[in-house]
Write a structure and sequence with these properties.
Elements lengths: L1 E4 L2 E4 L4 H14 L4 E3 L7 E2 L7 E4 L17 E8 L6 E6 L9 E13 L2 E5 L2 H8 L3 H12 L8 E6 L27 H17 L5 E6 L25 H18 L7 E3 L6 H4 L11 H17 L7 E8 L5 H7 L2 H4 L4 E5 L8 H11 L4 E6 L16 H15 L3 E8 L2 E2 L15 E4 L4 E4 L1 H10 L7 E7 L5 E7 L5 E7 L5 E7 L3 E7 L3 E7 L3
Parallel strand pairs: 8-23, 9-10, 9-16, 10-11, 11-12, 12-13, 13-14, 14-15, 15-16, 17-18
Antiparallel strand pairs: 1-2, 1-3, 4-5, 5-19, 6-7, 6-25, 8-20, 18-19, 20-21, 21-22, 22-25, 23-24
Helix pairs in contact: 2-4, 3-4, 5-7, 7-8, 11-12
């Protein structure tokens, strides 16, 4: 059992006698905050980075578990930190009077912003291969961690249409030359034997329908100007022509064939990183589009094809590329009424966010086109040549995630999708050796997987920000190093996420003017989620 009182944590996992003594002490002193079963504990393992990973196997994995709303007048806090805490749950009491903390964060519920869509990751070929490389029980354990009510409850899953760099080979679903009628279109073994079965299992574990969205990296080579799946190249011809119409029908066929396996898609993007195949000689799969070409393809081909199909309600997202391209890309596409009528949202990646201030890109775009949602569609750590690949236990990467998510949420983004759900110890497989990091790293040789600090960073959002939650305003009493965002959930409860990237412990209070003051502390280098009922 695990008993927390005062500021000391005692672990007596294998000693019921010791736990009983500690329970009695806590009970007599009146300082018992909570009791938590030992099976919930992180099995911490250090790989020499700034923090630890939590090791899981076929029979054991830490889990945040079900979270029930506390009674009015109480609040729950969940803490993860560089020091090694992972979603540590405590309960506190709302105070009628101010605690006297120098920093006060005040809720402003009259300021209402965007609604949350959700959080998740991508079922790439590589992710599927890594999950399936484990024993069946370990596979189940991993999927539960992401999708079940005991886990962190992802509700978004991105699915590549065909191969991408996180595949072990180059392929599309229509590689027969000049097959404009797509007579030889067929899903790959990677879909039918790996991704589809795993998506079905994930959906079975989830308490709510998963929202899947699909992105294509490239068209078949015979449709492209360079005749290859990789490198700089775009579709032959012009929008309205047979190549563009065939490419639109390719999307419809993908949706149809997945539907045969009882898998439906909430959304589609117009293609992964269209600037990659337009402006650079990409080393892996790419299909170039300018915003003007994307606009005309949607207006003349993809939009009408979707509209006349059974998938007219599928949410179509433009861009699916760096936010640096906003608001220009949105202006080109959405100022055209013929294209805009088919579009629902804008997908953004995070890789150049340092060079693209959120207010100038995201908020400006929202202000121009408030009826279109903005969704984070891809992000990962370890992509930079200066800090490449897997870092088992890197807390800095967890902070990078939380900072970007909070910044995005505070600038009208409705959700955030991580990249590969699972990778191997080298950050692959990836046919072009474009190795990166993932919130879950699989060690097939030991039949174990490691939950990275980034997994818990995602959890602080995905577990608590239900779909339909609405961001509300906050104000701070003084300048602070803390970063925060607050939401009212559909049931009226409140969630606040606080990130402390500084070296100092910060004491603060949250003022809910309808209830009172929530006393809280953010340890150095920590992520904190607060949850409470308002009535």
């Amino acid at each position: 059992m695990r008993i927390i009182y005062s500021h000391v944590t005692y672990s007596c996992r294998n000693s019921m006698e010791g736990a009983g003594v500690l329970f009695l002490v806590a009970l007599l002193t009146g300082t018992l905050t909570h009791i938590r079963a030992g099976s919930d504990e992180c099995k911490a393992k250090s790989f020499g980075q700034s923090s630890v990973v939590c090791e899981c196997n076929a029979t054991y994995c830490d889990s945040v578990g079900h979270v029930n709303l506390p009674a009015v007048g109480h609040f729950l806090s969940f803490l993860s930190s560089r020091a090694g805490t992972r979603l540590q749950r405590q309960q506190g009491q709302v105070q009628k009077n101010s605690t006297g903390a120098a920093l006060r964060i005040t809720l402003v519920p009259t300021e209402k912003y965007q609604h949350v869509k959700g959080f998740g990751g991508a079922m790439t070929d590589a992710a599927a291969m890594n999950i399936l490389s484990l024993s069946t029980r370990s596979q189940d354990q991993l999927l539960r961690q992401y999708f079940s009510p005991e886990g962190i409850e992802y509700n978004l899953v991105r699915v590549p249409i065909g191969s991408c760099d996180f595949s072990t080979r180059l392929y599309t679903y229509a590689d027969s030359p000049d097959d404009y009628s797509l007579l030889n279109f067929s899903l790959a073994e990677e879909d039918t034997h790996m991704k589809i079965p795993l998506l079905q299992r994930a959906q079975a574990l989830s308490a709510r329908p998963l929202s899947l969205f699909a992105s294509a990296w490239t068209s078949p080579a015979w449709l492209k100007t360079n005749g290859a799946l990789t490198g700089k190249g775009s579709l032959k011809g012009m929008p309205g022509g047979k190549e563009y119409k065939t490419w639109a029908q390719y999307y419809i066929r993908f949706l149809e064939d997945y539907e045969k396996h009882n898998i439906s898609f909430w959304g589609l993007t117009t293609g992964n990183e269209p600037t990659a195949g337009e402006m650079t000689n990409y080393s892996f799969q790419a299909l170039g589009f300018t915003p003007e070409l994307q606009r005309d393809w949607i207006a003349l081909d993809l939009g009408p094809a979707l509209h006349s199909s059974p998938y007219a309600k599928t949410h179509l997202m433009i861009l699916d590329d760096q936010r640096l391209l906003l608001p220009h890309w949105a202006k080109v596409v959405l100022s055209d009424v013929h294209a805009a009528r088919y579009v629902h949202g804008i997908g953004v990646h995070w890789y150049m966010d340092l060079f693209a201030p959120a207010k100038i890109t995201l908020t400006t775009t929202h202000d121009l086109y408030p009826e279109y949602f903005i969704l984070g569609t891809e992000a990962c750590s370890g992509f930079s040549s200066l800090d490449r690949g897997v870092r088992l236990g890197s807390w800095e990467r967890a902070e990078d995630y939380a900072h970007d998510i909070i910044e995005d949420l505070n600038n009208y983004v409705t959700g955030w999708t991580d990249w590969n759900l699972a990778l191997d110890m080298s950050g692959g497989p990836n046919w072009v050796k474009n190795f990166v990091d993932s919130p879950i790293i699989v060690d097939q040789s030991k039949d174990v997987f490691y939950k990275q600090p980034t997994f818990y960073s995602m959890a602080h959002f995905s577990k608590f920000l239900w779909e339909g939650s609405q961001r509300i305003g906050v104000s701070v009493s003084e300048h602070t190093s803390l970063e925060s965002s607050a939401f009212i959930r559909p049931d009226g409860s409140v969630v606040m996420i606080i990130l402390n990237r500084s070296n100092a412990e910060v004491h603060f209070e949250v003022w809910d003017q309808t209830l009172g003051f929530l006393p809280a502390t953010a340890p150095p280098h920590s992520i904190l989620t607060l949850l409470w009922a308002t009535s």
